[in-house]
Amino acid sequence: MTAVPIAIVTSTTGSARAETIGHAERGQDRRTEILAAARELMLTEGYDRTSMRNIAAKLNVTPTTLYLYFRNKEELVFHLVQETFGILLENLQSVMCPVTDPLCALRKGLEAYIRFGLAYPDHYRVVFMTLPHEAKRDACHKKQEECCDSLCDQAYGSLEKGVARCQASGQLRAGDAAAITATLWASVHGLATLLIKSGDHPAATPELMIETLLDTLLRGLAPEPSLPH
To answer: Which of 9, 67, 127, 170 shows the greatest Cβ crowding within 10 Å of its Cβ?
Structure first.
């Protein structure tokens, strides 16, 4: 999620500086508008049928206007991904960082992932359920020099570090931390997707399903008791 840079020129007057800031804010508003339109079209028309031209038509502007903000569809996809993972990362950090107990922090992070999907269903649908894997990979790969440590890697890394901390503290069983993280992610992603698609399950409320899933996952990964000699 890249903000439009604000040029700071020390010799400008106060009114000129205000005009520069106002222009940047209007630019950021327009970028947000474009991303929102692209997200809506991808959900209704699909990724392949969403083009810079029909995004422009939806906004009642010329395609040239879009190219002032995004060079092509690939760059637009990159910013859609960055925006989504930026919100997710902020949510994960806000619940995990203040908690000192590693297992409690990991549980909160896993729960935050599901709740992020429920709070931002359109963001989640586009990035995790609509965009082809190749589109995300290619867009982010070509931006690697500008974003060496992507927000996607940071968000996923928060969970991976949480698993490693729990293993180091003896609260999770020893094993491949990367495999355990992938399994946990797949599980919370599956429930988030189900709840976004279908809402309430006839047999249980979302709250109960979240609690049951987290209990099952973390208890299942608890350290195995020592066998008597």
So the answer is: 127
